[in-house]
Every structure is written in C-alpha cells, then in structure tokens.
Write a structure and sequence with these properties.
This protein has helices at about 20-35, 45-50, 70-80, 95-105, 115-150, 150-160, 180-190, 210-215, 235, 255-265, 290-295, 300-305, 325-335, 345-350, 360-370, 385-395, 405-420, 425-430, 435-445; strands at about 15-20, 40, 60, 65, 70, 85-90, 110, 170-175, 200, 215-220, 230, 240-245, 265, 275, 280-285, 310-315, 340, 375-380. The protein folds into three domains: about 15-135, Rossmann fold; about 155-315, 3-Layer(aba) Sandwich (Rossmann fold); about 320-445, Helicase, Ruva Protein, domain 3 (Orthogonal Bundle). The protein contains 19 helices and 18 strands. With about 475 residues, the chain is of the alpha/beta class. It is about 45% helix and about 15% strand.
Length: about 475
C-alpha cells in the first residue's frame, strides 16, 4: 500500500502517471490532484506514448507494464522530450536495474511502498528546476516547432489554443485516420475539465440494440439479459469529457435522448424512474458531412446545431505533406528506433503519395517498412502503401471468387483486413464496417490466427 500524506506546498503542473494496476494508479493520481496538479493516466507503454503530446511536466511510472517496462519506455519518452523528468517506482527493485534506469536518464528510482508526500516533493522540485532552466529554451523551442509545422496545422494549433480552459461543446471534422481522437484528448487536457475523466466512445462500434444501455446504463432486469446493474458512459464521464467519435453513425432513435441530456444535463438509466445529473463536456467527431446527413434526415438538425458550438477541422495528410518527416521521426522514436532513417528515394516516395488513409495509413506504412528494412536504412522498396495491397487484391487473377464458397471469400477478406491493420482487431473492424464483437466471432469461427502476427511495442492491447 502507498501511504498518502498531503502537504501545503503546491506547484501546479501536468503529471503523467503510468501504472497498469488501476487502484494504485487512481491512488497516486488522487494524491497529485489533491496537491493541485493536473494528472494524465496511462496503463501501458502505448498509452503513455500516446499521452506524451504535448509533453507533461513530469512522469511517474511503474517499472513493469503489460507491453514493456519503464527501462525500455524511458528512452522513447526522452526521444520526444529529454527535459521531462521521469520517476520510476517498482516493487521488484534490484541494484542493476536502478543503476541502468538512472544511466538512461531517470530522475529517481523509488521502491514500493512509497510515502506519497516524499515522491510528490521530489516531483515538484524536479518540475521547478526544469521550468527555471528551460523557460527561455522552451519559448524558442515552441517557436521553432511551430515554424517546422505546416501552415494548416499552425492554424489548427491557434484554434485549439483559444479553447484552453473552455467548457464549450466541440465538433471535430476530418477524414478517417487524421487523428481526430488525439485532438479530442488534447482539447480535454488543456480544457477546464482536465482533472476529470476522459471517456472515449466509438459510436460506429456500438450495436444499435445496445447503444442506449451503453450510453445511459441500465438497472437489473430492465430488459432480457440485463442480469446486473450497469453504469452508463454518461455516468462515467461525470465532471469530465465525453468524446463521441463518429457521431454521424449513431442510431437515429438515440439522437433525441442525447440532445435531451446535453440541454437539460439530466438522464435516466434504462428501467429507472429517477433522473441523474450529467455534468459533462461533449466533444464529438465525424468523417461524415453532417449537414448533408441532416438534409437526408439521417441526422437530427437540432442535435447538429447543439454539438457544433465550435467546429474545428483536422486537415488530411495530403494537405500537410511537409509534416511527414516530423511524423515519421516521432513514429521511429516511439518504436525505440530513432537511428533508423529513410533514404532520399524513400522520402520522395512518401512525399508524393496521396495518403487516403492519412496518419493511420502512415503508421501502417512505417511499421511495414521497419519489418522489411535492412539495417538502419529504410529503402524505397521497403515503402509499400495500403492502396497497393488493395490494388493487387483487385487485380489478382487465377482463381475466380465464383468458384469459392461465400465463407472462403469472407475468410480471406477478413484476413486481408487484419493484415492491412497489422492485426489490430479494433481497426480491422472499422475498416470492415462491422462491430468488433462480430469480427471476433468470425475470427473464431474461421480459425484465423492472431498470435502469429507481428506486434510492436506501441501496439495497443486488444479489448474483447
């Protein structure tokens, strides 16, 4: 157990806590928030790297994580920003691990159980030192970073900066794979509710017959199969942000209920009489033209105007090709391979491509290139695009699909979708436009192997 003692000395900052045990993570986060700090929470190396933009003021991480350990995570974080102090906590301390961590740049190394007031004092002093020594450098670095980004991204940065400490509803527009969910998380982190929860919901993945239960929750016995009471996502997001990704795909029958919650700040669980308060901030995103959906009457006009208080558009990657070198460098750093670099011909190939899958496709291309490369060089032949795979599939002659059973065709289609998404079931389900639960069932029925697929350190853990 970690003993929590709160002192009166406070230095507000953003602290990233990385711990796979939820109870321990919440305990550390609560102690930090009691001292006035904003806290980001991650349960794995992958989540930590995803939350590291913009960099926090400090990181507190457990040594052992589900997809790696802090000794491997540390250089990846420092490749993104070497000035951020990283504190490692472990219940499995050995001298050689501690020495190795400190040599790699860890600020300090703590063994469980940790007296929380001591840990926080160390963190606050490290943050103060960093701020005192890097204030001038930070201003210059921020200007340099903005100058190195494309004009469309600098405009987006300015729009988001105006939302700092705001609590308004935001609608994020952009093509699939442009990073709308990353932007939503950033808007939450700089907003007035940054200390509250951030609940991410993919509306396209919600089954229409369960979407109301997922959003609002239900009482036991509210419907057939409701064997226990369930908390809804509006409940989970109380005092924080609810992010409805791909809101354009949400069921028409549920739309008026969402509108009611947003307007009245109240809702009922299924099967419940009393109303509950819903103090949330809503951020929504879609790749659809919602005005066209309103005209087709597949999306309610009143809900559209309610969620579009502020609208921001994430540019496609083909609109910001000058950002590709920086994005590739970040991806390589996240993989722990900052010394790997593409050849001039490979860069030209990356810059001339149209990127229909945007940043998501760029990640696939770089991961594929890292598998195919020789040594520390990515050659032009190692750069293979998703559209090329689709074209070769369409152009494949030989066996006609009419000579195969429907099951055989479907099995191959699912296998190719999984391969295109590097085995990530969640992304493959989106590509196939079917619920993840359905895809898992088909994978099981067809005996499609998942364990043999290549995985990287930054692959997210799959959810059931």
């Amino acid at each position: 157990m970690i003993g929590v003692v709160v002192s009166s000395v406070q230095l507000q900052s953003r602290i990233l806590v990385v711990e796979d045990d939820a109870a321990t993570r919440h305990g550390v986060a609560a102690a930090l928030r009691a001292r006035g700090h904003a806290v980001l929470e991650a349960g794995s190396c992958h989540e930590a790297l995803a939350l590291f933009s913009p960099p926090p003021d400090a990181v507190i991480t457990d040594l052992r994580l589900p997809d790696g350990d802090a000794v491997r995570l540390l250089p990846q974080l420092h490749a993104l920003d070497a000035t951020v102090p990283v504190f490692i906590i472990t219940g499995f301390a050995t001298i050689d691990v501690a020495v190795r961590a400190v040599k790699l740049g860890a600020e300090d190394f703590f063994t469980k159980p940790v007296v929380m007031t001591t840990l926080i004092d160390f963190v606050e002093k490290a943050v103060a030192r960093r701020r005192s020594t890097t204030t001038g450098k930070h201003v210059r670095a921020s200007v340099a970073a903005r100058e190195s980004r494309s004009e469309v991204m600098r405009r987006l940065d300015d729009e988001v900066e105006r939302l700092r400490n705001s609590d308004c509803t935001v609608l994020i527009l952009g093509e699939t794979g442009t990073g709308k969910s990353v932007l939503a998380r950033h808007i939450h982190d700089v907003g007035a509710r940054s200390n509250g929860p951030f609940v991410d919901v993919n509306c396209a993945g919600l089954r229409s017959d369960f979407v109301e239960s997922e959003l609002f929750g239900h009482l036991r016995g509210a419907f057939t199969g409701a064997h226990a009471q369930k908390q809804g996502l509006f409940d989970a997001a109380h005092d924080g942000t609810l992010f409805l990704d791909e809101i354009g795909d949400i069921d028409m029958q549920v739309q008026p209920k969402i509108l009611k919650v947003l307007e009245e700040k109240r809702f009922r669980r299924m099967g419940e009489v009393r109303e509950r308060n819903a103090d949330i901030r809503l951020i929504a995103a879609t790749h659809h033209d919602l005005l066209a959906s309103v005209e087709r009457r597949t999306f309610r006009a009143d809900l559209f105007y309610r969620i579009s208080t502020v609208t921001v558009r994430v540019p496609s990657l083909r609109e910001r090709t000058e950002d590709i070198p920086g994005l590739v460098a970040q991806l390589l750093a996240q993989e722990g391979l900052p010394d790997v670099s593409p050849t001039r011909e490979a860069w030209e190939k990356l810059a001339s491509y149209s990127w229909p899958g945007n940043i998501r496709e760029l990640k696939n291309v770089i991961h594929r290139a890292l598998i195919l490369r020789t040594g520390t060089v990515i050659a032009a032949d190692d750069v293979r695009f998703d559209s090329e795979s689709r074209s070769s599939l369409l152009a494949a002659p030989a066996e006609s699909t009419s000579s195969r059973t429907l099951e055989e065709v479907e099995r191959e289609h699912i296998a190719r979708a999984l391969a295109a998404e590097n085995g990530r079931v969640r992304d493959a389900a989106r590509r196939l436009a079917i619920p993840r639960s359905t895809l898992y069932q088909k994978i099981k029925n067809y005996g499609i192997p998942l364990s043999s697929r290549p995985r990287s350190l930054t692959d997210p853990p799959e959810e059931g």
